[in-house]
Every structure is written in C-alpha cells, then in structure tokens.
C-alpha cells in the first residue's frame, strides 16, 4: 500500500515504470562503457612508462605564475594584491550585515 501512496520502496528495489522499451531491459546494461584494455594487469605491473602516455611537464618562470595569481580573479577568494594573504578564519565575510 505504501509503495503506491508514498513511493516507499526497499533499498535497491527496482521501480517498475512500465516504459515501452525497444529491447529487453533485463538483458541490457545501462551506463558508461570503456573500451577493453588487453593485458591491463600486465601493463600495470611494468615499471617502464611510455612517453606518449603521460603529458609533458612544462617548466615556467615563477614571475609568470606570480603574474597569473595577481592578474586573475578566483571565485570566492579576495583579490590578491601582491601584499600576501592574512589568515582571516572561516567565519570572515566581506561587507556589512543585513538588518
């Protein structure tokens, strides 16, 4: 009775919505599928890494990173003016309180 009136289903119980599928849903697997990797366990155990499998590390100057930190605004963070950030605590807010 509660299933019909309250939608009270047991955990993991499938709800039958009486959809008109063009296939048998009990034989079909829904979701994201990855391509099959041959020798996946053997490749995980090898110490050698192929160069094309990993992105190249790019080393740039610290001045470039400092400029990005000052020039770009981060959402939810006060603007970095190059003066350093003080520890304001988790309850700090900008502005005044609404009445």
Essential attributes:
99 residues, mainly alpha, flat
Topology:
Layout: H1 2-6, H2 40-45, H3 62-71
Please explain how this structure is put together.
This protein is mainly alpha-helical and 99 residues long. It has a domain at 55-80. It contains three helices and no strands. It is flat and about 65 Å long.
End-to-end Cα distance: 49 Å
In DSSP terms (H or I, runs of 4 or more residues), the helix count works out at 3
Shape: flat
User: What Rg, in angstroms, do the CA atoms define?
Assistant: 28 Å
The average pLDDT score comes to: 77
Q: What kind of assembly state do the chains in view correspond to?
A: single chain
The percent range for helix content is 10-25%
Order of helices and strands: HHH
- Percent strand: under 5%
Unreliable stretches: none
Largest sheet: none
Return the structural class.
mainly alpha
Number of strands: 0
Quick structural summary:
The protein has 99 residues and is mainly alpha-helical. It has helices at 2-6, 40-45, 62-71.
């Amino acid at each position: 009775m509660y299933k019909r009136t309250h939608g009270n289903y047991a955990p993991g119980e499938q709800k039958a919505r009486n959809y008109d599928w063009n296939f048998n849903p009990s034989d079909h697997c829904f979701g994201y599928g990855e391509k099959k990797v041959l020798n996946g366990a053997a490749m995980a155990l090898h110490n050698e890494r192929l160069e094309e499998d990993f992105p190249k590390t790019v080393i740039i100057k610290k001045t470039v990173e400092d400029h990005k930190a000052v020039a770009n605004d981060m959402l939810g963070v006060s603007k970095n003016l190059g003066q350093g950030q003080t520890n304001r605590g988790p309850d700090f807010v900008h502005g005044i309180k609404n009445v």
